[in-house]
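Problem: given the chain below (496 residues), write out its structure.
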Amino acid sequence: MFSHGADSAHDAGGVGVSSGGATVPTRFVWPYGGKRVFLSGSFTRWSEHLPMSPVEGCPTVFQAICSLSPGVYQYKFFVDGEWRHDERQPTITGDYGVVNTLYLTRDINQINTVLSPSTPGSRMNMDVDNENFQRTVSLSDGALQDGHQRVSEASIQISRCQVSEYLSLHTGYDLLPDSGKVIALDINLPVKQSFHILHEQGIPVAPLWDSYRGQFVGLLSPLDFILILRELETHGSNLTEEQLETHTISAWKEAKRQTYGRNEGQWRPQQHLVHATPYDSLRDIALKILQNGISTVPVIYSPSSDGSFPQLLHLASLSGILKCICRYFKNSTGNLPILNQPVCTIPLGSWLPKIGDPNGRPLVMLRPNASLSSALNLLVQAGVSSIPIVDENDSLLDTYSRSDITALAKDKVYTRVRLDEMTINQALQLGQDANTPFGFFNGQRCQMCLRSDPLLKVMERLANPGVRRVFIVEAGSKRVEGIISLSDIFKFLLSL
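Solution.
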């Protein structure tokens, strides 16, 4: 099925087709602004101008929905008294100058019948070269090798406007659960003790409380432990295993600022605590996370204007915000036209480069027999949250993430192993039951989707707590084809 220049009202991003002589609700979009915009075409015999309405929340995007029978149509837009066509959609030169074209049918063989001037009941007045028209349909800029059509720019614009409006109208209060707990650590706790607390509580991140200043001053994350363990393995380390017993979080944070602040891959230490209030919009909270390159923002409420007596309400994350978006739009996908689009049709995520592409960048992947040290180095240097673990055919077996480092606290494993001698396979087994075979996708650790899966499915997977990346795999072989992260989704939706 092909569609150009219009989106179905009930199947976002593509034109739906019903069998027989039934008509199809078809959305026409003009995304380039104007004060008064009308639609006219062969389906109105060019004698009627249909008014187009601005999309709610998107004043520069106009739409009109028409019920059309399968066929070939010409159309143009009348914008502020001037005839216009959409240069990003297929065009031909007809009796009305350069016009956009719409081909609406299930079977491409029907085109010859539709184009025939003697077709009974035909309402079109066209002078079209059939061969050239078919070439336009099959080789347009939007066509992909696997038969999918790239999502239109209009659908992307509408969806971005809708998401931005929703995020701007909702606040941090929408993220607060009905019940739950938030664990904070005193900054004077020994590093070793805090390491064990995170492992025992099953949490990856904890806010840090400075009782002397009466403030929350930072976060303790798996990255801290990764850097500590790497330092322990470094010749001439200033931090010994014995010092972990007494070395405080405060002392480590200060040492980290001095040691790693200069140059450590893409990572930079935070000079101050990035936090949000429950009154901040979800859009502002998402932007704080993205712009500071962090995974979590504490939501802090203070009853006084000077910020004293702060109360820690929640740890906000992109996955929590995404869960709100999915819940809000799931039953009204017409308001978000791209939700039902296959992810391969959307400019989103990182994908295996095409053969011969000189600008393509390979995906970062590791074999299960690679050393834990190499995995930790990649996590820091590449600035990613997890790395796919694949076999010799690049088929997905498991994933190693930053938070997996806390498994080394089990039975104090970190005190008797070397990172360059332990394999990823062995490291992952520490966090699993002894009878669990390697490659078993434990709970929500390793999320997979197909390139043909709709965007909504990928978003719902990423909305699960603890999931930062979804791996796009080939059906059957589970060969990794691409990776879509939480930050990819939000940078796309917020046009960053």
